[in-house]
Amino acid sequence: MIEVDISRVIIEEYSKRLTEHLENDVVVVGAGPAGLAASYYLCKSGVKTTVVEKKLSVGGGIWGGAAGYNVVTFEDTEILDEIGVTTKKQGGLYTADAIEFATALAYKAKKAGAEIFNLTEVEDIVLKDETVKGVVVNSASARLLGLHVDPFCICARFVIDGTGHPAELVGMLKRRKPELFPRELQEYFMNVETSEAGVVEKTSEVFPGLYVAGMSVCDVFGLPRMGPIFGGMLKSGKKVAGLINERLQSSNA
Ligand SMILES: Cc1cc2nc3c(=O)[nH]c(=O)nc-3n(C[C@H](O)[C@H](O)[C@H](O)COP(=O)(O)OP(=O)(O)OC[C@H]3O[C@@H](n4cnc5c(N)ncnc54)[C@H](O)[C@@H]3O)c2cc1C
Prior knowledge:
Layout: H1 2-20, E1 23-29, H2 33-44, E2 49-52, E3 71-74, H3 78-83, E4 88-90, E5 93-97, H4 98-112, E6 115-117, E7 120-128, E8 131-139, H5 140-144, E9 152-161, H6 168-176, H7 192-201, E10 204-207, E11 210-212, H8 215-221, H9 231-252
Parallel strand pairs: 1-2, 1-9, 2-6, 9-11
Antiparallel strand pairs: 3-5, 4-5, 7-8, 8-9, 10-11
Helix pairs in contact: 2-4, 2-9, 7-9
Flavin-adenine dinucleotide binds at residues 29-35, 52-55, 60-62, 64, 121-122, 162-166, 168, 187, 214-216, 225-228, 233.
């Protein structure tokens, strides 16, 4: 029966993908601009990468532009040109359509080889020998419905906290190890000039095995917020991919 065939191929295909990605080089948590850019550059370098996103849609904060006006801004177009996004120069800034940007970035990450599991929420960290070794995940609907459902784990040599504002993975560490992150996880007041550069500069490993990229960096280091300008997010994603790639190369050498 066609009805059974449809169900069977979906279940088989999804299970195959999930099983093949229970062990990875990198797990990226959050499919916002930083997480998607990181996964695109990691996959381009041949790094086995899984992205976990709790929402139905990927793209994080891209879609709404500013206050729902779906236009996003950039200071340069290097990465946008690479992923094929149309830009318009307007004064000292470049603009792009938020929908085109979100879909192009997700498409490029996917085509480069990223495995993306949406509707999948990270609820905890796998920690061994004081090193982050993976994430504990559940169906996002389990939390929404308040269901008592046990999770499963997706492991990796490195994990990226690309959860944006909440810096959720760092928050999970902070709750059990407050001494490691004594300050509150919170961005500072708006200041685009300092933050666009600062977010890239501070993109780094903040605990063995755990890197931060994108707005999570602002929360962890108390950098200013920057609003709907996305170059820093892309560059932070590209930088974290480069840092992890170097680590993988040197440990494989
Ligand atoms: C509500 C909102 C508020 C914003 N506020 C600011 C601001 O104050 N300052 C500023 O500069 N810019 C802000 N922006 C603008 C811009 O959207 C962000 O700067 C940019 O999107 C951040 O990119 P990112 O990749 O770091 O994170 P995001 O685009 O936020 O993407 C993070 C992704 O991680 C996912 N995620 C979170 N937790 C989990 C989890 N546990 N498991 C799995 N997935 C998870 C989220 O669903 C999301 O898709 C905001 C955007 C929105 C929509």
